Amino acid sequence: MRLAAAASRGLLAALLVATAALAQPAPKVKRIDPPKTVLFVGNSFNYYNNSLHGHLRNLVNEADKAQAKSYTFKSMTISGGYLLEHEGGLPHVVKSRKWDVVILQGQSTEPMESNKERSDRFKAYARQYDKVIRESGAKTAFFMTWAYQDKPEMTAPLAEGYTNIANELEAFVVPVGLAFERSLKARPELVLHFRDKQHPSLAGTYLAACTFYAALFGKSPEGIAYAADLDKDTASFLQGIAWETVKAFY
């Protein structure tokens, strides 16, 4: 009887996991034209470890050395910033040059619909910024962020929140949070968070950069020599995780 009960509980748990996976919305926009000019708009999740956009630039430059000078990656960040806090600066920066893609990232819990007032505000500003971005000739993308180290249950609502607003706006979304989840399942000993359990470690930032590379350019980062001072095995593993995540998501 005990074995039967344990088996039933195991089956129920598996069904719940499968149901949760099915409940996750699929992205409408599954590819984007490879960009030459990219602007990241967000907060410290972007600028930790000498900035995510810098690591993405290094990956791109290493992969396409002949055209390295033709790419531009920049970021506009506010410490702890919510999306609304970019209202004063974003329109000016977006119009300052010809951007191909502008990537929006909210505060680390902002898109989660468990706090309706906050998530509604996030969506309202995403719609407002998307209009500005599109009028400039650029495309909007969203940076799906990761769960805190001690709160893995954040992954699904963050994925849902970012994917839903991206689908509403027919915008692109990059599944960094899902890459974190995949990596932690495959190698739980590999630390992707800083000691505060929220911000990324260097490995976490590198994984994010590899995921952006795979998503924006539609090709695997595997084999790119740039490793962000990580050991070769770790960098190779994270490159593979990024590519697996992107293929599964789109």
Describe the structure.
With 250 residues, the chain is of the alpha/beta class. The chain has a single domain, classed as SGNH hydrolase (Rossmann fold, 3-Layer(aba) Sandwich), CATH 3.40.50.1110. 49% of the residues lie in helices and 10% in strands. The protein contains nine helices and five strands; from the N terminus they run αβααβαβαβαβααα. Strands 2-1-3-4-5 form a five-stranded parallel sheet, sandwiched between helices. Helix 6 links the parallel strand 4 and strand 5. Helix 8 packs across helix 9. The longest helix has 22 residues. The termini are far apart. The N terminus is likely disordered.
Topology (elements, then pairings):
Elements: H1 2-23, E1 37-42, H2 44-47, H3 52-63, E2 72-77, H4 90-94, E3 101-104, H5 116-135, E4 139-143, H6 155-169, E5 172-174, H7 176-186, H8 202-217, H9 232-249
Helix pairs in contact: 3-8, 7-8, 7-9, 8-9
